[in-house]
Amino acid sequence: MKDNRNIFDNMDDNSVGTISDYFPVLTDKEKDRIFLMSEKKLNKNISEQSIENDDVVEIENYSRPVWHRYLGMAAAFVIAVIGIGGGGYLMHSMKKTAPEKNNSEIVTESATTVTQVTSTNATVSTTTTTNNNVETVTSIVTIFTDIPNTDIATENNSDQYNNTSVLTETTTTPISQDTGENNNDEDLSAIADEILEQYPEIVKIEMGTYYSDKTDAIKFKYQFDNNEITYYHIDPNIFPDMDSLKSFYHTMVTPSSNDLTLFGPEYTSDELPEGSMFDDLKLYRYITYDGKLYGSQDASDISKFNTWSQEPAVINNVIYDGDEAIEFTALKSHTMFNYETSSLGMVSIEFRLEKDRSTGKWMISSYHYAN
Amino acid sequence: MTDSELKVQMTKSPASARRALFDEYCNYVYAVVINKLRNCGTREDMEECVSDVFADVFRSLDSLEPRNEDLKGFIGVVAKRRAIDSYRKLSKNANMTLSIDDDDFNKLSSSENVVANTERSEQNALLIQKVRELGEPDSTIIIQQFYYNRSSSEIAKAISMTTAAVHKRSKRAREKLKLMLAEVGISL
After folding, report:
1. Do A25 and B188 make contact, defined as CB atoms within 8 angstroms?
2. Which of A102, A115, A162, B127 is 20 to 30 Å from the Cα of A149, by its Cα?
3. Is residue A153, in this structure, part of any structural domain at all?
4. Is B149 inside any structural domain?
């Protein structure tokens, strides 16, 4: 495989996109470093351009008519009065229409939308809060009035405005039980968190560290590296045979070509005596030997899954069939103990989850590290 | 991120909009750049080129016509051009000879090129699919080692494993990949 370094040379555009999506490589440190370099280059370029254009730089003073300022202030005042009055009226109405408090589980969700109306220099920020089936809409109107009289064109013009008045408006309306689009991510995140509880079991099966009996072992040689490979007898009380192991695994993970190297064939001691060269090119994790189930452990993998992060899974790439989500990815971090450095490391894994259409059950179809 | 979304963010805070754009596309740009410079540039050359790409992109943001389109295509084109420029500079510095078989010379696509490119795309897609089928952490190890030219110790640090474990897993994953590819008619 010396030539393997060339197999990824000159990938086409689509493949490059796929690789960057599935196998992001840059660490936070590298990202910060490169971003800083980009910003420096951008700033350098801007300052160079301004030096080159010295002969054409001219600041033209523009005097805004004074009445504009007073008009703006008056408009702000009118909106503030309407808002406060309206808010008071709606608060009063809310008291009348608010449902009685009960002991049922409280569900709270928030969605904020910000609309910037540049022509009037006003920003409307709307926050929707749902609590016990009551939707509360809070609108914050921010008016920008103190516009400088001298306008000098700069790249960053966001600092030209100062907020002078803030108005809040609250309306209360009952909503239906139906979960909206904002609920979906929370639901899927909860689904993902529940499914991912099984991940340590999946790792145990894939790494071959599942309930094996160390006293009952058989050894072979692997023809590629001539290394010894040891298979341990899997506790028959847990998994009596290959089918039971496979069935259990597929309650969590959808069948894939990964199965080809996980679940091996059946051998007898006559055809494959202990100590002989393993005649199959594949390195199976599990084999059946003389009717008993054996598994090889990945001794090299000494870093172990520790605990999931407390943060909920981040949901992306949701695919819907009508209104029903049938596939999505969930990003979740967990700690791993590194025995070499005797420290805990944090890794993020992106899982793809698919809904089994026949049973309605969510299953993991693949996963990969996302650094 | 679309150009319209970016414009909205730019009006609020140009600096945070640039950072958001960078965070979304930095891995993509890095993948495009390394695809071109893998065999002639150092890690520093690649980071330099990625930063050039984003400096170019940031400079062009004001002149972008709003079309509500994903910016990936535009950024991809800028990244490829910059990567080719860097490739030429680095090759010149290293006194390397550019082959007429290089992509840079395929300016005019003949029908043979189209067929060859399609075949190459299909083969690449198959290769990535098989790498993904290796399962984790093997697929990450293979891609980081051979696509991104990362060392075993860097990979070990990234996925919280020991260097020896990465080395061993890589060796076995390569053998497994070789078999999987052979099954679909791709020989290494």
Report:
1. no
2. A115
3. no
4. yes
Looking at A296, A328, A344, the residue that finishes a domain is A296
- A156 CB neighbours in chain B (<8 A) are 14-15
- Suggest the residue from A27, A33, A34 to mutate for an interface test with chain B (most B CBs closer than 10 A): A34
What DSSP element (H or E) covers A312? none
Q: Which amino acid is at A121?
A: N
- Looking at residue A165, its pLDDT comes to 36
Cβ-defined contact of B127 to A12 (cutoff 8 Å): no
Res B153 pLDDT > 60: yes
User: Domain containing B54: what range?
Assistant: 3-93
Whether residue A115 lies inside any domain: the answer is yes
**A18–B128: do the CB atoms touch at under 8 Å?**
yes
CA atoms within 13 A on the CB side of A247: 7
pLDDT at A211: 66
* CB pair distance less than 8 Å for A9 and B31: no
Taking CB atoms and an 8 Å cutoff, what residues of chain A touch B83? Answer: none
pLDDT for the residue A55: 53
Q: Omega before B137 cis (within 30°)?
A: yes
Give the pLDDT band of residue B53 (cuts 50, 70, 90).
very high
* pLDDT interval class at A53 (50, 70, 90): low
Neighbouring-strand partners of residue A212 = A234
> Could you tell me if residue B140 is inside a domain?
yes
pLDDT in tens, A139-167: 444 444 343 433 333 333 333 333 333 33
> What whole-number distance in Å separates Cα of residue A277 and Cα of residue A343?
38
A25 CB neighbours in chain B (<8 A) are 27, 30-31, 143-144, 148, 150, 158
Share of chain A above pLDDT 90, in %: 12
Instruction: Report the residue from A37, A283, A347 with minimal CB separation from B159.
Output: A347
Query: Are A168 and A70 within one domain?
Result: yes
Do A173 and A91 share a domain, yes or no?
yes
Instruction: Give the C-alpha distances (Å, rounded to integers) separating B8 from A43, A118, B49, B135.
Output: 22, 11, 28, 40
Name which of A188-192, B3-7, B54-58, B110-114 the model is least confident about. Answer: B110-114
- The chain A residue lying nearest B117, using CA atoms, is A12
**Residue A147: count of CB within 10 angstroms of its CB:** 14
Residue A256 located in a structural domain: yes
3-state helix, strand, coil in chain A (%, to 5): 30, 35, 35
| Domain membership of residue A88 as a residue range | 66-96+106-147+160-177
Domain count, chain A: 3
CB atoms B132 and A24 under 8 Å: no
| A1/B125 CB distance under 8 A | no
Question: How far is the C-alpha of B163 from the C-alpha of A161, rounded, in Å?
Answer: 54
Q: Given an 8 Å threshold on Cβ–Cβ distance, is B162 in contact with A338?
A: yes
Residue of A nearest to B26 (CA): A31
User: How wide is the angle at C-alpha B16 spanned by C-alphas B10 and B21, nearest 5°?
Assistant: 80
Question: Looking at the predicted complex, does its ipTM rise above 0.95?
Answer: no
